[in-house]
């Protein structure tokens, strides 16, 4: 059992540093005993992009989620993710094997996305009741290729990739599997749990940028409604969104109905919100590469953010607490 405080050097070497196998040429100094900083070499015409996110809503797949969430943030800027730093806070009573498993999860994602873990901090503390990982991502992008959340322009199409609610559905299915199996078939729950394999939008972003985009925003806490508001608020524009065109899996609909929560306000890593002059071209290219995508509306002049559901129209509201926290 790990004792309170910084993990011992032997544990650091055995269960953390030894698990880090993905390496990048840009990293001059990476993770190591006694190293407080990472050193990264970039070209003169490249921009250094960073993002940081904590994972607090679940203990399942926390190592993988930590890397995915920060990598998705970096990807939404049009940048290539090259490194990640992990700050890991563990509750008292944590076994070393649990720590090692988290790092193996993180490294599995890093290996798939070609990201190097360049450092971080690991500590056992009484102030947390479950593991908390904060990931800081590091990326690079050419100066003329930087994409922002604030770049949407009136007349742009609005595109969303994959399906909304994938992350939240997977978390609920894993955290409440026993309860859900009393109501739903094992195959439905297994499918919902498997949504955790679709949480990266790194490839979504790369494909969209190659076609041409004005803004991108990964859909996280607050769900698609929160992401739509944020991209419109950042860009100072309005929206007309067709609610029924927003792609959502039936498994998500059924699990959300069971718990009485709104899938459109559910944490949705795995979906990228995109604005583009030619959204149909973006959708077509994504589908050619095996990634589901849909046109869901238009960017408009003014500040009205309108949700259209058949003959019914209502206004989008500022983001609220994620639906996941209601369960």
Write the layout of secondary structure elements.
Blueprint: E1 5-6, H1 9-16, E2 27-29, E3 39-40, E4 46-55, H2 62-75, E5 80-90, H3 96-113, E6 116-124, E7 132-142, E8 157-161, H4 166-175, H5 177-180, H6 186-193, H7 202-211, E9 215-218, H8 223-235, E10 238-242, H9 250-259, E11 272-276, H10 279-288, E12 293-300, E13 305-309, E14 312-315
Parallel strand pairs: 5-6, 10-13
Antiparallel strand pairs: 1-6, 2-3, 4-7, 5-7, 8-11, 8-12, 9-11, 10-12, 13-14
Treating each run of at least 4 consecutive H or I residues as one helix, how many helices? Answer: 10
Main sheet overview: 7 strands, mixed
Class inferred from helices and paired strands: alpha+beta
Shape: globular
Task: Calculate Rg over CA atoms.
Answer: 20 Å
* Average pLDDT number: 93
Which runs of at least 5 residues are low in confidence (pLDDT < 50)? none
Looking at the chains present, what oligomeric state does this protein adopt? single chain
Beta-strand residue percentage = 25-35%
- At the fourth level of CATH, the homologous superfamily of the largest domain is PurM-like C-terminal domain
Annotated CATH topology of the largest domain: Phosphoribosyl-aminoimidazole Synthetase, Chain A, domain 2
Order of helices and strands: EHEEEHEHEEEHHHHEHEHEHEEE
Distance between the termini: 31 Å
Helix content: 25-40%
Summed up, the domain count is 2
Q: Which architecture of the largest domain per CATH?
A: Alpha-Beta Complex
Number of strands: 14
What order do the strands of the largest sheet run in, or round the barrel if closed? Answer: 9-11-8-12-10-13-14
What is the top-level CATH class of the largest domain?
A: Alpha Beta
């Amino acid at each position: 059992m790990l004792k309170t405080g910084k993990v011992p050097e032997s544990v650091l070497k055995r269960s953390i540093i030894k698990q880090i196998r993905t390496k990048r040429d840009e990293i001059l100094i990476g993770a190591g005993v006694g190293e407080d900083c990472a050193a990264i070499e970039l070209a003169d015409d490249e921009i250094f992009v960073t993002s940081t996110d904590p994972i607090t809503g679940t203990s399942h797949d926390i190592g993988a989620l930590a890397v995915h969430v920060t990598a998705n943030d970096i990807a939404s800027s049009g940048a290539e993710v090259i490194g990640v730093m992990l700050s890991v806070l563990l509750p008292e009573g944590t076994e070393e094997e649990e720590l090692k498993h988290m790092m193996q999860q993180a490294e599995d994602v890093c290996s798939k996305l070609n990201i190097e873990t360049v450092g971080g901090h690991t500590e056992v503390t009484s102030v947390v009741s479950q593991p908390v990982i904060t990931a800081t991502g590091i990326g690079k992008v050419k100066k003329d290729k930087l994409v922002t959340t604030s770049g949407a322009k009136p007349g742009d199409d609005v595109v969303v990739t994959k399906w909304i609610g994938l992350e939240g559905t997977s978390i609920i299915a894993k955290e409440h599997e026993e309860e859900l199996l009393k109501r739903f078939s094992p195959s439905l729950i297994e499918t919902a749990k498997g949504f955790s394999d679709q949480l990266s939008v790194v490839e979504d972003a790369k494909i969209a940028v190659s076609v041409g985009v004005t803004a991108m925003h990964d859909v996280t806490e607050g769900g698609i409604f929160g992401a739509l508001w944020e991209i419109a608020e950042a860009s100072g524009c309005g929206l007309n969104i067709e609610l029924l065109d927003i792609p959502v899996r039936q498994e998500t609909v059924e699990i959300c109905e069971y718990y009485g929560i709104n899938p459109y306000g559910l944490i949705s890593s795995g979906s990228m919100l995109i604005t583009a002059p030619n959204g149909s071209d973006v959708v077509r290219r994504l589908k050619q590469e095996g990634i589901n995508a849909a046109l869901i509306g238009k960017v408009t002049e003014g500040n009205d953010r309108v949700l259209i559901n058949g003959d019914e129209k209502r206004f989008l509201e500022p983001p609220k607490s994620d639906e996941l926290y209601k369960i």
